[in-house]
UniProtKB/TrEMBL annotation:
Its cofactor is Mg(2+); Mn(2+). Belongs to the isocitrate and isopropylmalate dehydrogenases family. LeuB type 1 subfamily. Keywords: Amino-acid biosynthesis, Branched-chain amino acid biosynthesis, Cytoplasm, Leucine biosynthesis, Magnesium, Manganese, Metal-binding, NAD, Oxidoreductase. The lineage of its organism: Bacteria, Pseudomonadati, Pseudomonadota, Betaproteobacteria, Neisseriales. InterPro entries: IsoCit/isopropylmalate_DH_CS, IsoPropMal-DH-like_dom, Isopropylmalate_DH. The gene is leuB. This is 3-isopropylmalate dehydrogenase. Catalyzes the oxidation of 3-carboxy-2-hydroxy-4-methylpentanoate (3-isopropylmalate) to 3-carboxy-4-methyl-2-oxopentanoate. The product decarboxylates to 4-methyl-2 oxopentanoate. It comes from the Bacteria. It catalyses: (2R,3S)-3-isopropylmalate + NAD(+) = 4-methyl-2-oxopentanoate + CO2 + NADH. Substrate binds at residues 93, 103, 131, 221. It comes from Chitinimonas prasina. Signal peptide: none annotated.
Length: 355
C-alpha cells in the first residue's frame, strides 16, 4: 500500500499525525504500508509558491491512496485566487479525476446527545451522500467578475454537466445503494435549472441497469428540509457538486460534530483521496484540541474502498466505537459525565483500542 500523506494546514498536521499513528500500529502488526509525506495548500504555497506543486503532484499521481488533513487559513485569503490553498484542493481532485465523493453521515449511539436534533430523530442514522466532485458550477466556464453591457460590475458562474459525468457518478451511487438498503434519492433543482433537469433525465436512464434499487427524486430545497425533519428516510443520496457540498455539511451536523465525519473521493479505479469533511479549523489550530476521529475514520474508508480490506476498515471503526464507549471525548463532542481528551490523547486511546 503506497499512501501519500498530505497534512495540509491549520489542524491538518495534528489530526493527520493521529491517523499516521494508527497506520504505524497496523504496520507493526504486519500490514505492508509505505508512506510519503508532501505538502498541499497553504503549506505547499509557503514551501514552493504553489498550492499544488510538482513535487506533490509527482507523489500523489503514483500513490495508491492519499490521506489529507485539510487546507486553508486566514493568512492565505488575500493571495491571488490561483495561489490560494483551496485551489490546491480543487486541482488535485481534477488532476487525479476524483469525481466521486462519498460522505457517510452515521450517528454513533454514544453521541446521540451531541446532535442538536432530538435523539429519536437521529438515533440509528446511517446515510451515504454521493457528491459529484469535478464538475458543476465550481468548474464551469465561463466564470468571472466583469463589467456588463449596462456598465455595472457583475459576477457570474456556469452550472454545467456533461452526460458522461452524470452517468459515471450515477453508476457509483447505484452500486453503493445495491450494497446498502437499495434506496437512492437523486437531488436536483429540475424545476428551475436546465442543467439539473438533464441530470435527472440521465439518472433515470442509468436506473434501468439497476432494477433492484428504488430511485426517487427530490428538489434540493426540500432535501435540505427533509434532512432535518426526517433524515432516516434516506439511504443513499446522489447529487451534484454544489448541492452535495451544502447538504453533506448539513448532514454532518445531524451526527453531532463535523469532527466525526470522514470522506472519500474516488476515481474510476477506486484510487482515492481520503479526508475529514471539515476544514482546517484555524480557530483551534496548534492547540491540540481538534477531534482526529474523522481523519482516522477516513483511513478506515481508504482500507475499504481503495484496498478492499474490509477487515482492517472494521478494525479501525471498532476501535473508534470502543473509545467512544469508554467515554473519551474531544472538546467538540464533550458532554458532562464523559472524559475530555486532547487530540493526541484521542490518538492514544484509539491506538490502545486497536491493540
Ligand atoms: P472548518 O470546518 O475548518 O471549521 C468550522 C468549525 O468547526 C470551527 O469552529 C472549527 O473549530 C470546528 N472544527 C472543524 N474541524 C474540527 C475538528 N476536527 N475538531 C473540532 N472542531 C472542529 O470550516 P471553516 O471555518 O469554514 O473554514 C476554515 C478554513 O478551512 C478555511 O480556510 C476554509 O477554506 C478551509 N476549508 C478546507 C476544507 C478542506 O480542506 N477540505 C474544507 C472546508 C473548509
Amino acid at each position: 500500500m503506497k499512501i501519500a500523506i498530505l497534512p495540509g494546514d491549520g489542524i491538518g498536521p495534528e489530526i493527520v499525525a493521529q491517523a499516521v499513528r494508527v497506520l504505524e500500529k497496523l504496520k507493526a502488526d504486519g500490514l505492508a504500508v509505505e508512506t510519503v509525506t508532501v505538502p498541499l495548500g497553504g503549506a505547499a504555497y509557503d514551501q514552493y509558491g504553489e498550492p499544488y506543486p510538482e513535487a506533490t503532484r509527482d507523489v500523489v499521481r503514483t500513490a495508491d491512496a492519499i490521506l489529507l488533513g485539510a487546507v486553508g487559513g486566514p493568512q492565505y485569503d488575500t493571495l491571488p485566487r490561483d495561489k490560494r490553498p483551496e485551489r490546491g484542493l480543487l486541482a488535485i481532485r481534477k488532476d487525479l479525476g476524483l469525481f466521486g465523493n462519498l460522505r457517510p453521515a452515521m450517528l454513533y449511539p454514544e453521541l446521540a446527545g451531541a446532535s442538536t436534533l432530538k435523539p429519536e430523530v437521529v438515533a440509528g442514522l446511517d446515510i451515504m451522500i454521493v457528491r459529484e466532485l469535478t464538475g458543476d458550477i465550481y468548474f464551469g466556464q465561463p466564470r468571472g467578475i466583469h463589467v456588463n453591457d449596462a456598465g455595472e460590475r457583475e459576477g457570474f458562474n456556469t452550472m454545467r454537466y456533461s452526460e458522461s459525468e452524470i452517468r459515471r457518478i450515477a453508476k457509483v451511487a447505484f452500486e453503493i445503494a445495491q450494497k446498502r438498503n437499495k434506496k437512492l434519492c437523486s437531488v436536483d433543482k429540475a424545476n428551475v435549472l436546465e442543467c439539473t433537469e438533464f441530470w435527472k433525465e440521465i439518472v433515470i436512464d442509468v436506473a434501468k441497469q439497476y432494477p433492484d434499487v428504488e430511485l426517487s427524486h427530490m428538489y434540493v430545497d426540500n432535501a435540505a428540509m427533509q434532512l432535518v425533519r426526517n433524515p432516516k428516510q434516506f439511504d443513499v443520496i446522489v447529487t451534484g457538486n454544489i448541492f452535495g457540498d451544502i447538504l453533506s455539511d448539513e448532514a454532518s451536523m445531524l451526527t453531532g460534530s463535523i469532527g466525526m465525519l470522514p470522506s472519500a473521493s474516488l476515481d474510476a479505479n477506486n484510487k482515492g483521496l481520503y479526508e475529514p469533511c471539515h476544514g482546517s479549523a484555524p480557530d483551534i489550530a496548534g492547540k491540540n484540541v481538534a477531534n482526529p476521529l474523522a481523519t482516522i475514520l477516513s483511513l478506515a474508508m481508504m482500507m475499504r474502498y481503495t484496498f478492499a480490506r474490509e477487515d482492517i476498515a472494521k478494525r479501525i471503526e471498532t476501535a473508534v466505537q470502543t473509545v467512544l464507549r469508554q467515554g473519551y471525548r474531544t472538546a467538540d463532542i464533550y458532554e458532562a459525565g464523559t472524559q475530555k481528551v486532547s487530540c493526541s490523547g484521542m490518538g492514544d486511546a484509539v491506538v490502545a483500542a486497536l491493540a
